[in-house]
UniProtKB/TrEMBL annotation:
<dbReference type="GO" id="GO:0006636">
    <property type="term" value="P:unsaturated fatty acid biosynthetic process"/>
</dbReference>
<keyword id="KW-0472">Membrane</keyword>
<keyword id="KW-0276">Fatty acid metabolism</keyword>
<dbReference type="InterPro" id="IPR005804">
    <property type="entry name" value="FA_desaturase_dom"/>
</dbReference>
<keyword id="KW-0812">Transmembrane</keyword>
<keyword id="KW-0443">Lipid metabolism</keyword>
<feature type="transmembrane region" description="Helical">
    <location>
        <begin position="301"/>
        <end position="324"/>
    </location>
</feature>
<keyword id="KW-0444">Lipid biosynthesis</keyword>
<dbReference type="GO" id="GO:0062076">
    <property type="term" value="F:acyl-CoA (8-3)-desaturase activity"/>
</dbReference>
<dbReference type="Pfam" id="PF00173">
    <property type="entry name" value="Cyt-b5"/>
</dbReference>
<comment type="similarity">
    <text>Belongs to the fatty acid desaturase type 1 family.</text>
</comment>
<dbReference type="InterPro" id="IPR012171">
    <property type="entry name" value="Fatty_acid_desaturase"/>
</dbReference>
<dbReference type="InterPro" id="IPR001199">
    <property type="entry name" value="Cyt_B5-like_heme/steroid-bd"/>
</dbReference>
<feature type="domain" description="Cytochrome b5 heme-binding">
    <location>
        <begin position="16"/>
        <end position="93"/>
    </location>
</feature>
<dbReference type="GO" id="GO:0016020">
    <property type="term" value="C:membrane"/>
</dbReference>
<keyword id="KW-0560">Oxidoreductase</keyword>
<dbReference type="Pfam" id="PF00487">
    <property type="entry name" value="FA_desaturase"/>
</dbReference>
Length: 442
C-alpha cells in the first residue's frame, strides 16, 4: 500500500490517498507532520501553527494515532470536523490495524466503551450551581480579607491572616480557571474561553493563552521528556529513573542532585509562582504581543493596588502580594506534584491513552477537605483520562475506571494525602541517588 502517497497532493484537501502506518510515522518532523484520527490521515504541517491549543501539543502526535487524544480534548468533535476536513489526505489501508505501534487494541476498545458510557450517563454535563458557589466563595474570601484590614487596621497578625485568606482565594481561583480552561463548565466553548480569561486574568493576573499552550502539552503527553513542560526542570532537578542515570553517565552536574530532596524546599515551592511563572507569563504575553491577555492580567493588578495602596502604601502592597504568591506557590507545588512526580517519568513510549495516563498519574483519597484543597485533582487519574469532564463527577466515573484497570492489569494507585506529599521528597531522593551512583561508577 506504499503507493498511497501518489494518489493525492498532501494538504490539497483531496482525501484519496491510502497509507500504511510506516508511511504516516515517517512524517513526524517539525516541517512535515501527519497524524491519524479514526483511521483518517491528515497533513497538519501548515495548520499546526494555527491550532487553538498551540503548535506543540498537536505536534507531539505527529506520525501517530491521535484518535484518543482528539476525543479527550474536544467536547464538540462535529464542530472541529470543519477544520479537519480540508486537511485530510487519505486514510489507512484496509490491511492496517486501527492502532499504531504496539498499542493494545482491547484496552483502546474498552476505554472507548467506558467513555461512551460516561457520556450516556451525563457525566460530561456540568452543574452550574457548583461553579457559581465556588466563584462566590473566592469573591467572599477576597472581600473579607480587605474589609478586615480596612476596619481593624494593618497590624502584623491581621496582615498575616489577610495573606492566608488572599492565598486561599488565589489557589481556589486557580482551580476554577482550570475548570474553564478545560472547557468543562459550559456546553459552548466560547463561554468557557471567555470565563477562562476572566478567571485566570482578572482573578489571578495570569494569561489564558500561556496556560493553555503549557497545560495541554502536559495532558497530551504526561511525564514524557521533551513533550511535557512540567518535567522540564531546567537542569535544577533530575526526575524519574532514566534522566538521573543519563545525566550521571554524561557527568552532568549543574547542581548537587544527590541533595535535591533538600534544596527542593528552598527552590521549588517558594519560587515557582512568584519568580519562574511570573517572569514566564509576562515574557510570553509581551513577546507574543498577546495584548488581550495582558489587559486581563493588568486588570487584576489595577484592582489589587487600588484596594491595598491606601492601606499599606505602594511598597507595603508589593510586599503583601509577594508574600501571598509565596504562600500560593507552596499550595500549588505540593498539590500538583504529588500526583505526578513520584510516577514513571521517561522518554516517549507510544502507549495507548489509558496506559499512558495511569503510568503518569495517581490519586489521593477522597474527602471533603481533599476535594476542596486540591480542586478535585485528588482524582488526577479521572481528570487525565477525561479532561473535559466537570470535576464534581470524577467520583462517579472512578469506580468504572478502577474496574477497567483491574481487568487489564494496569496499576491504579490511591494514596493518603500524607503519603502523596512525602512521596514527592522520596522520589527526588531516589532520583538523586541514581544520579550519584551513575556519576561515580558508570
Amino acid at each position: 500500500m506504499g503507493g498511497g502517497g501518489q494518489l493525492t497532493e498532501p494538504g490539497s484537501g483531496r482525501a484519496g490517498g491510502v497509507y500504511t502506518w510506516e508511511e504516516v510515522q515517517s512524517h513526524s518532523s517539525r516541517n512535515d507532520q501527519w497524524l491519524v484520527i479514526d483511521r483518517k490521515v491528515y497533513n497538519i504541517t501548515q495548520w499546526a501553527k494555527r491550532h487553538p491549543g498551540g503548535f506543540r501539543v498537536i505536534s507531539h502526535y505527529a506520525g501517530e494515532d491521535a484518535t484518543e487524544a482528539f476525543a479527550a480534548f474536544h467536547p464538540n468533535p462535529a464542530f472541529v470536523q470543519k477544520f479537519l476536513k480540508p486537511l485530510q489526505i487519505g486514510e489507512l489501508a484496509a490491511s492496517e490495524p486501527s492502532q499504531d505501534r504496539n498499542k493494545n487494541a482491547a484496552i483502546i476498545q474498552d476505554f472507548h466503551a467506558l467513555r461512551a458510557q460516561a457520556e450516556s450517563e451525563g457525566l460530561f454535563r456540568a452543574r452550574p450551581l457548583f461553579f457559581c458557589l465556588h466563584l462566590c466563595h473566592i469573591v467572599l474570601l477576597e472581600a473579607l480579607a480587605w474589609l478586615m484590614i480596612w476596619h481593624w487596621g494593618t497590624n502584623w497578625m491581621l496582615t498575616l491572616l489577610c495573606s492566608v485568606m488572599l492565598a486561599t482565594a488565589q489557589s481556589q481561583a486557580g482551580w476554577l480557571q482550570h475548570d474553564f480552561g478545560h472547557l468543562s463548565v459550559f456546553k459552548k466553548s466560547r463561554w468557557n474561553h471567555l470565563l477562562h480569561k476572566f478567571a485566570i486574568g482578572h482573578l489571578k493576573g495570569a494569561s489564558a493563552n500561556w496556560w493553555n499552550h503549557r497545560h495541554f502539552q502536559h495532558h497530551a503527553k504526561p511525564n514524557v521528556f521533551r513533550k511535557d513542560p512540567d518535567v522540564n526542570m531546567l537542569s535544577i532537578f533530575v526526575v524519574g529513573a532514566t534522566q538521573p542515570v543519563e545525566y550521571g553517565i554524561k557527568k552532568i552536574k549543574h547542581m548537587p542532585y544527590h541533595r535535591q530532596h533538600q534544596y527542593f524546599f528552598l527552590v521549588g515551592p517558594p519560587l515557582l509562582i512568584p519568580v519562574f511563572f511570573h517572569i514566564q507569563i509576562m515574557h510570553t504575553m509581551i513577546s507574543r504581543h498577546d495584548w488581550v491577555d495582558l489587559v486581563w492580567s493588568m486588570s487584576y493588578y489595577l484592582r489589587y493596588f487600588c484596594c491595598y495602596i491606601p492601606l499599606y502604601g505602594l511598597l507595603g502592597s508589593v510586599a503583601l502580594i509577594s508574600f501571598v504568591r509565596f504562600l500560593e506557590s507552596h499550595w500549588f507545588v505540593w498539590v500538583t506534584q504529588m500526583n505526578h512526580l513520584p510516577m514513571d517519568i521517561d522518554h516517549e513510549k507510544h502507549q495507548d491513552w489509558l496506559t499512558m495516563q495511569l503510568r503518569a498519574t495517581c490519586n489521593i483519597e477522597q474527602s471533603f477537605f481533599n476535594d476542596w484543597f486540591s480542586g478535585h485533582l485528588n482524582f488526577q487519574i479521572e481528570h487525565h483520562l477525561f479532561p473535559t469532564m466537570p470535576r464534581h463527577n470524577y467520583h462517579l466515573v472512578a469506580p468504572h475506571v478502577r474496574a477497567l484497570c483491574e481487568k487489564h492489569g494496569i496499576p491504579y494507585q490511591m494514596k493518603t494525602m500524607w503519603q502523596g506529599l512525602t512521596d514527592i521528597v522520596r522520589s527526588l531522593k531516589n532520583s538523586g541517588d541514581l544520579w550519584l551512583d551513575a556519576y561515580l561508577h558508570k
